[in-house]
Amino acid sequence: MRCVIARFPFELSKSGVLESMKGVKPEPVTGESVIIGRRHYPVKQVGQVITRQDRRDFSGAEVFRAMARLGFTCRTLPEPAPSRVESPLQRASAMLGTPLSV
Predict the structure, then answer these.
(1) Cα–Cα–Cα angle for 64, 69, 73, nearest 5°?
(2) What pLDDT is attached to residue 102?
(3) What gap in Å lies between CA 17 and CA 71, rounded to an integer?
(4) Cβ neighbours around 74 below 10 Å, total
(5) What is the pLDDT of residues 54-95, one digit of tens each?
(6) Which one has a higher pLDDT value, 95 or 98?
(7) pLDDT tens-digit readout, 19-33
(8) At 97, is the secondary structure helix, strand, or coil?
(9) Are strands 8-11 and 39-42 parallel, antiparallel or unpaired?
(10) What is the count of structural domains for the chain?
C-alpha cells in the first residue's frame, strides 16, 4: 500500500511492518497505540522504525491512518471522565450528614 508520511511516499505492507518491528521492544504507551503481534507500540515509535525518520518529522495521525489501512488494530486512550465539582454548600451538607427522621 502506498502512503505518504512526513511528505515522503512509502510502499508499506503488513508483512513488511511485522518484519520491521520484530525484535523491537515497545516503549510505554501514553497516547495512540498500534497492536503489532501481541505488543502495543506507541504510533510514533512505529513510525520512526518503519520510516527511519525522526519522530518530530511526522504526526502520529499519519502513522495511525496508515496502520489502520494495513489492518492493524489502532487504539486511542479514552478521554478522562470530568471530575465532579462540588459547591461549598454541597461540601458543607456532606460534612454535616443527613438529618435523622423521628
Answers:
(1) 60
(2) 56
(3) 11
(4) 18
(5) 999 999 999 999 999 999 999 987 666 667 767 888 888 878
(6) 95
(7) 999 999 999 998 899
(8) coil
(9) unpaired
(10) 1
The cell numbers describing 33, all together, are 497505540
* Domain range for 16: 2-22+30-75
Query: pLDDT at position 97, please?
Result: 77
Residue 88 lies in a domain: no
56 is written with which cell numbers? 518530530
Residues 6+ apart with CB under 8 A from 70: 1, 12, 13, 14, 17
Taking residues 31-37, report their average pLDDT. Answer: 92
Instruction: Give the DSSP per-residue string, 9-74.
Output: EEE--HHHHHHHHTTPPPPPPSS-EEEETTEEEEHHHHHHHHH---GGGS-HHHHHHHHHHHT-EE
The reply to whether 83 falls in a domain is: no
Assigned domain for 85 exists: no
